[in-house]
Amino acid sequence: MTGEPIRVAVVDDHPVFRLGMTALLASIPGLAVVGEAADAEGALRVTDLHRPDVVVMDLHLPGRSGVEATREIVARHPGTGVLVVTMLDDDDWVFAALRAGARGYLLKGAAPAEVDRAVRAVANGEVLLGPAVAARAVSFLAGARAGSAAPFPELTDREREVLDLVAQGLSNVVIARRLTLSPKTVRNHLSNVLTKLQVTDRSQAIVRAREAGLGQP
Hints:
Layout: E1 6-11, H1 15-27, E2 31-37, H2 40-50, E3 54-57, H3 66-76, E4 81-86, H4 91-100, E5 104-107, H5 112-123, E6 128-129, H6 131-141, H7 157-167, H8 172-179, H9 183-197, H10 202-211
Parallel strand pairs: 1-2, 1-3, 3-4, 4-5, 5-6
Helix pairs in contact: 2-3, 3-4, 7-9, 7-10, 8-9
């Protein structure tokens, strides 16, 4: 980088965390916060307007997920790096974010020095993963997860399992019995699935699932 500060935007739907991250980044010499957003649409607007060097991105956002926002930001602005900072640490989210084009992935709770180092690395075009995330990536590359990539990587394993059973035509009550869950928990999982797949109802989810090969008895 030149003598210009690294320009950063912060995207997180939790105001306390967003304000805290903004304050942390603003306090670090050589970094400048140029914008904030609470959802994917806001992230795109901020990126289009300010063209930051790095977008610090949460994944669990209202409406469209941070994975989708990352994919679109990278497509629109290849020079902008996305650093994911999130509570979501399961394999599906990690690899969905990396496939979408994120250059970094930290878990919330990372030390300030780690955040500083990650922002600078991403701004420099490098890839930096937090220790726990890096261990997952190494395990994946070593072949610990065999077989082809699962459909809908933005879904958790449980959400994909629920979607598979929904696509088989099973009711929530039957799915709850099959998975030893409460019907309310199944409804919650299905609601998350509809949101993440950006479909409006169960029927559309079934169509998407069957197109992806789910729903086979």
